[in-house]
């Protein structure tokens, strides 16, 4: 029986570099460990470590009298998280994220379908540019611009007044919950801006999914007598669903975590991100802020698990 | 500019702990400058003419003393305290709550007022202010201060200034014949509870509120009820001065608690805006330049403190920030502030300002009070409609 060294066709090389090279050749795992180690340590310690440190905080509580953190294991902070005012914040944020996701999917689907099936050459390049362009400009600029558009004395009101449709806007703003004293001071405004800002993240995955739908399946469907609606329902939509789910991960999670849009546009009612910011920044109540961050983590965990079951990651 | 306003938001606060700090010995005599000076400051507090070349109070100091100034901006008092705890800085422009926390934590050293020739020129009302003096020892030099005024639209009020804060707390018909509902704003910070308490102090004396920052459970509950009522009238709460200006311009807002800063900016644009200090008095903020306990450049730091007390610098900062100088002489003959500047910013209303401080559980006036972190969570609830 021959050893590896004996069957080695070349003599060992001289010099440190040569010997090192031989060593790595014989022990590929060591090389892998050296290459992967730093990023894994980074991910493990800096990312996961800090995350767990934060989560751990949520099991501490704040002392009512001194405002100091009490480092003893307790679920009191979670009880506080489930108080009415805080539950409102959670429900408000999740409902907004769900609505934004739904609206984005509905608006985006025809656009993505057009881009995937009909746009060619320059038209396609232009489409990509048009989708990406808003992503390249500053997020804050876009949000402030929308504030001006939606203001009581803003462009939209002026435009509706010209069309004699002001009564429609007033009727909408008089509605409970979605209404307010102007579009920029209502949930409707927050919703519009959320949809605008996160929509590009929805278009691209859906378009990619639609491009993968084989054209012959669509033809086969109509050959077999399927109406366009049936073809859509039984062929195109199921095949594009993974793309929609993948896109919805972006819109849903981004809306769930955003704390700038609701601060600038809306009725000052807090969303989860703002609550975290307020609790850890101004109040110094880090345990409650940590408990609040657990909410999106749990929701996104469940969401990703569901998305995986629906095949959103199959095309990765 | 916006940054600096954010900072103002954070200026909220002041004081809390009156714990006696073991006195470190202040500097005995001044030596030569060390060539460098690092300051933790609110954005916009230390200007070297980069935003507007007329507003520069650093370049001259550097040329005169050879101390190269570097500024680390902090957006909240908590951040300031954290930076000072970390160390490596010489000075901090601390608001009331940060200042006494720093004193209690021994992160700042007492100062020798004899080494600051301009100390005696400081407004007497500020010289021994409790937010920088502990047990008769001074822990810094006053910088600038300001009131939270009631800003209003003169068209909506037909030129008649509102006399009371009730225009932002109770539903009523304004002089222009329309309700104030949806046309007023309130500050988007828990410290606004103090404004409600201040209003109740005048209108519900039976509650026995002595200090709007020290509330027992009953007084606190009454303040929250008032704020819940206010929620029905407020479309959006304000936290960013620029957004508030925009709301006054584009959203039809006609009255709100505000800073002289916004009032000055809008008046400069010839908008029908004015401000008033209503009969109930107002809340306000005051900042102090404090010296780090382990400062490596104490001589430069003393020179800077002296420099900031010159009428020119005091006037310039006040003009820039819509604040009031701590040195009375700054009110006269400053080109940027102008001779009316001090009156505009509320200089003569010092007595009617109840300076921001952090509510603590162990309070002076009645032993046990509702602490700040409950103000935070409850105010979130109030805005959310609970």
Name its key features.
heterodimer, A: 316 residues, mainly alpha, MetI-like fold, two-stranded antiparallel sheet, 2 strands, 74% helix, B: 386 residues, alpha/beta, 4-stranded mixed sheet, 14 helices, globular, disordered N terminus
Summarize the structure.
Chain A has helices at about 5, 15-25, 30-55, 75-80, 85-115, 120-135, 140-150, 155-160, 165-175, 185-200, 200-210, 215-225, 230-255, 260-265, 270-280, 285-310, and strands at about 60, 70. By secondary structure, chain A is an all-alpha fold. In chain A, strand 1 and strand 2 (about 70) form a beta hairpin.
Descriptive notes:
The complex is a heterodimer of chains A (316) and B (386). In chain A, 31% of the residues are buried. In chain A, strand 1 (61-62) and strand 2 (69-70) form a beta hairpin. Chain A has 16 helices and 2 strands. In chain A, helix 2 packs across helix 3. Chain A is globular and about 90 Å long. Chain A is mainly α and 316 residues long. In chain A, strands 1-2 form a two-stranded antiparallel sheet. Chain A has a single domain (82-315), classed as MetI-like (MetI-like fold, Orthogonal Bundle), CATH 1.10.3720. With 386 residues, chain B is an alpha/beta fold. Helices cover 33% and strands 16% of the residues of chain B. Chain B contains 14 helices and 15 strands. In chain B, the strands form 4 sheets. In chain B, strands 1, 2, 3, 6, 11, 12 and 13 form a 7-stranded mixed beta sheet that branches. A 4-stranded mixed beta sheet of chain B has the order 8-9-7-10, covered by helices on one side. A two-stranded antiparallel sheet of chain B has the order 4-5. In chain B, helix 3 (77-86) runs parallel beside helix 4, helix 7 packs across helix 8 (217-231) and helix 8 runs parallel beside helix 14. The longest helix of chain B is centred in the middle third of the chain and has 15 residues, at 217-231. Chain B is globular. The model of chain B is unreliable at 1-22 (pLDDT under 50). The chains are: A mainly alpha (316), B alpha/beta (386).
